[in-house]
Design a protein that fits this description.
This protein is of the alpha+beta class and 262 residues long. It has seven helices and nine strands; from the N terminus they run E-E-E-E-E-H-H-H-E-E-E-H-E-H-H-H. The longest helix has 18 residues. It holds the Pfam family RecO_N.
């Protein structure tokens, strides 16, 4: 039972009771928490400015309830550019949903916060949506402990240099073009992707947060990496958030089911 202050991302909000707002927050110190902003839907409330997809400093009371109480909030960055078009908004919402799905309550993971701030900032400022969101998404997976071994072929141990490769998201391994046909007869879950997609993914995995949005995935590479990411999330995290479908509709991304070989 204590009052505390934390730098937090507002991931989600929804109306609660008569005039309150229920927030899903992700703080540097506290990790993911649920908090009630009492009276925040009243026009003159000092909490009236709380809205999702923003970075804030919160004054919070943690009592006996599983929900904390938000007592004060100062906006650090509201990323106004995200509201300018549906594409940017959809990528930002997807990242908020991914953080919500991937991390448990009150289990701090402070490294998540700079990646999301950088991603929202890049997308708000006309950075490449798909590249920024997916490469940040892979960094979140890495922080959550998922690190696929997609560097060398699982059978021959060689770095693939030509044709397509097979990425297996069930066992987190990869196959070169020579060993892909062997694998595709098995029961693993995976997909054949171009070498270009693999190289782009590998660069994303070693990115520094200041370089988020680099190594842009365009055209077929973007679609392949979008599909691989979606399948990976579904396999390891569970149900895809609704924002995934929203992104797909906004960006008009067709499923690459035809590339599924495993
Ligand atoms: Zn091989």
């Amino acid at each position: 039972m204590a009052q505390y202050q934390d730098h937090m991302l507002i991931l989600k909000s929804r109306p609660y009771r008569e005039a309150d707002i229920l927030l899903t927050l992700f703080g540097i110190k506290s990790g993911k928490i649920g908090a009630v902003a009492k009276g925040a839907r009243r026009p003159k409330s000092r909490l009236a400015g709380v809205y999702p997809l923003s970075y804030v400093i919160c004054q919070i009371y943690h009592g006996r309830s599983s929900l904390d109480t938000l007592n004060g909030v100062d906006l650090v960055d509201g990323f106004p550019g995200l509201q300018k078009d549906l594409s940017r908004l959809s990528w930002a919402l997807l990242l908020a949903d991914l953080v919500d799905e991937m991390f448990s309550e009150r289990d701090p993971a402070p490294e998540v916060v700079p990646w999301i701030i950088a991603a929202w900032d890049r997308v708000a400022g006309e950075g490449p949506g798909l590249t920024t969101a997916l490469s940040a998404g892979w960094q979140l997976l890495k922080l959550a402990g998922y690190i696929p071994q997609w560097e060398t072929c699982h059978i021959c141990g060689e770095i693939p240099v030509q044709n397509s490769v097979g990425v297996d998201w069930e066992h987190d391994v990869m196959y070169c073009s020579r060993h892909l046909p062997v694998r595709s007869q098995g029961a693993s879950e995976g997909m054949a992707v171009s070498l270009g997609s693999l190289r782009t993914w590998q660069r994303w995995m070693t990115l520094d947060v200041t370089k988020l949005g680099n190594y842009e995935a365009k055209g077929i590479i973007g679609e392949e990496l979008f599909f691989v990411f979606g399948q990976y999330i579904e396999r390891h995290i569970g149900r895809m958030p609704r924002s995934w479908q929203f992104v797909r509709e906004v960006e008009n991304i067709a499923g690459k089911e035809r590339n599924r070989l495993f």
